Amino acid sequence: MPALEDITASGAPAVSGAVHVGRQAMYDREGALVAYELLFRRDADALEATESGVYATSKVIVTAMTEIGIDALVGDARCFVNLTREFLVGELPLPFDHHRVVLEVLETITIDDQVVAGVAALVEQGYPIALDDFVLGTGHERLLELASYVKIDLLETPPEMVVALVELCRRYPRLRLVAERLETAEHFRVATELGFDLFQGYYLSRPQVISVPALSSSRLRRVELLALLADPKVSEWPVVTLVTADPALSMRLLAAANAHALGLPVKVSSVHDAVSLLGVERLRDWATLLLVSDLEDGDEERLSAVVTRARMCQNMAERMHLAGEAAFTVGLLSAIAEMLDQTPDELAPRLSLNAEVTDALVTGAGPLGELLSFVISYESSDLPAIVAGAESEPGTGTAAPSESEVTRSYREAVDWSTWLFEQ
User: Fold this and answer.
1) Quick one: which of 249, 133, 177 has its CA closest to 28?
2) How far apart are CA 275 and CA 272, in angstroms?
3) Which residues, listed in sequence order, are joined to residue 105 by a DSSP beta bridge?
4) Cα–Cα distance measured from residue 410 to residue 227, given in angstroms and rounded to the nearest whole number
5) Counting beta carbons within 10 angstroms of the beta carbon of residue 227, is it exposed (0 to 12), middle (13 to 18) or buried (19 or more)?
6) Strand partners, 26
7) 8 A C-beta contact, residue 105 and residue 143
8) Average pLDDT, stretch 185-213?
9) What is the CA radius of gyration of the chain?
10) DSSP SS3 for 307
11) pLDDT bucket at 79, cuts 50 / 70 / 90
């Protein structure tokens, strides 16, 4: 395992800035270090978290697994990662195996049937679940039968409530109790007497911020990778060629493939091996997380418009029995071309696209081209064009969507982009 101080050794690729992950240790009753909680940090001097949500969680996952490496971060210990609702219900992927990671359900998440079902599915896959800042009356009691850990805040929770929570949790034999925010010797004494299993807080150790140089990835190549992976039948060689042309993508992919958390059967030594072992689905998971983790690099309003157009194209295509993934790609790339101040015919030749997607982007031909034109007209409230598009029935041989279906497709796209950007 490389030492943390060796990560920035000479000979590393050229970098732009650095990436940071906070970690706070957890100890067992014998005082042995058994786990770390991983925390988002914007800079090396930040002792407190500055933001949360989808971006922060994605950044922690990407940074821990690829930029730093799970071994370098936590050694043989486990790592606890805070998750938002989007990860729990499957709207965003978890591209790592369950062997090294404990998934924390934040206290701010509303527990409904969808969350319970999502957590149950994660447990079925082998992921341990921790309930963060557990208190009574928030609905998180529904997850006690599924959880492996319950974290109780000894700083903010009244002593009598701590006792009640411990008594409740002891009804579930599989639960291990974690005393968090231990800031005084008295906190530690109480937690020990109450029989807590793990201990975390400033009294024992303060968070550390681990920083490593960050490679600068080509945004265009990342878009191209997403476009390639939108096709479930994509062959390996175009993906390998694309990744090897970008040192940052190559490094991240190899690190991801070699991470113990991914649970792969062998170590890999080449991009080709990594692509073969990971497969299209897991590669797409990583590409999605990389995109989300880098969203702060662009203007959120413009990025939200990009995502909304792509999703609306997909929603409408699926209602019209067209290829939803291809429609998403057409909408995505047309909007990205606008954001890059390029025309689609300038962007398309630089990407590995099939003829249907290329024709739709460059000439507006075919069902997908007509659908894209319709969606762009809808965005700009170009009513004559919308009417003409509806009369021409985008997609030969396919019934045009009704007005209510168009409106629903748009609203669903907006809702989807909202949770992605406004966390």
Assistant:
1) 177
2) 5
3) 83, 131
4) 22
5) buried
6) 35
7) yes
8) 92
9) 24
10) helix
11) very high
